[in-house]
Amino acid sequence: MSEFYYLVRKNIKLIFKSKFAIIQLLAPVAVSLLILKLFTGMGGNLTYGVVDKDSSVSSKFLISKFEVNRSTIKYYDNEETLIKDITNRDINGGFLVPEGFQESIIGGNIKNVDIYMGTNNNFKKSLEANINDTVTTLEQISTGASNNKDNYIKILEETKNKTIKVEEARLDDKSSVYQVTQMSIGLLIFFMMLRANSTSYIMLEEKRSNCYSRIFASPITPLKFISANVVANLLVLVMQAVVTLLSMQWILKLETDIPFGILLLFLVLIAFVAVAFSTMVMVSSKDFSTASIVSNLFINISCMASGCYFPIEFIPENVRKISFLFPQTWVLDIFKKYQTSSVTIDKLYINIITLIAFAVTMLLIASFRMKFSNKEMTALND
């Protein structure tokens, strides 16, 4: 075991030998946190513009519903000014309540509320859903009032004056938080794979310097040599993951509803896979250029297909079907599971087992390749 500890210590010293090592370690963390800060900072109160051409009890009821969701309402006299402010990004979006809106509800032939929005379709869907829900409520009130205008207005007034108790609650939609956190973790995974790739170059350098031949003549087995490189590399990546997660919770105070331990576990597993992959590539490659091309090609394609750079919803359906061939997908999949339902650790076993299988398979290939590469290394040195 003393040889193993010596190799681990030696590799860690080599990793931090450069004076830029700490910067290389913390830079990905800073970038991931910066993206989180930028996008979560955009999740504050929304400002909507309204053109109320009906000026009725119904239109006021509709507009008042947005205050429940902590939105700011800005009134406009015409839609031209409203559209101009949306274009200038002074407001997030807006809508126009048409003249005769209340009468159309009572008459059972509801006029559509026109929605104006910029390029953000997520805001448009949210605004449209809120309006549709409120219009449905008004339609049901009209039906309950037997489509009688006086009874209908009386019910709305009583609702407004709290004679009829209506409980309102703001539902926290955390889908955007999950999405931003998923993208940030995806970017961190990308950086972790690059980091594992760069530190594994130590093995290729030792291969070029005929270090492997001396290993075969010593008590150190190829498996022990690979394991020491894996452990040293993994310790660095785990340190990077811990710093990121602690910063998310303590500095940004971001609540993802995914337990710290679960996130850390999956980041450790993907770090294990990243180290195993880079080790396999370095052991199998004859030179730096080949290793670099293979590694960069796999990392970029797999990260893109898995949704590390952007939400998985933006990826074509055909690509999504093959994305589960890449380990990153099995990490980012936990965000989808937590977003759609209550998740316990037993529902994540398939993800954990799959990631371990990825890593073990790659390490076995690396060990096998190293064991039978002595002749190749001798030829390379000649």
Description:
Its main location: membrane. It is found in: Cell membrane. InterPro entries: ABC-2_transporter_component (IPR051449), ABC2_TM (IPR013525), ABC2_TM_bact-type (IPR047817). By secondary structure, this protein is mainly alpha-helical. The protein has 2 domains: 3-39 and 175-379, no CATH class; 44-161, abc type-2 transporter like domain (abc type-2 transporter like fold, 3-Layer(aba) Sandwich). It has helices at 2-15, 21-40, 57-68, 79-87, 101-107, 121-144, 149-160, 175-199, 201-208, 211-216, 222-250, 260-284, 288-306, 317-322, 327-340, 349-371, 374-381, and strands at residues 47-52, 72-75, 93-97, 114-117. It has a 4-stranded mixed sheet with strand order 2-1-3-4, sandwiched between helices. α3 links the parallel β1 and β2 (72-75). The longest helix is centred in the middle third of the chain and has 29 residues, at 222-250. It is elongated and about 100 Å long. The two termini are 33 Å apart.
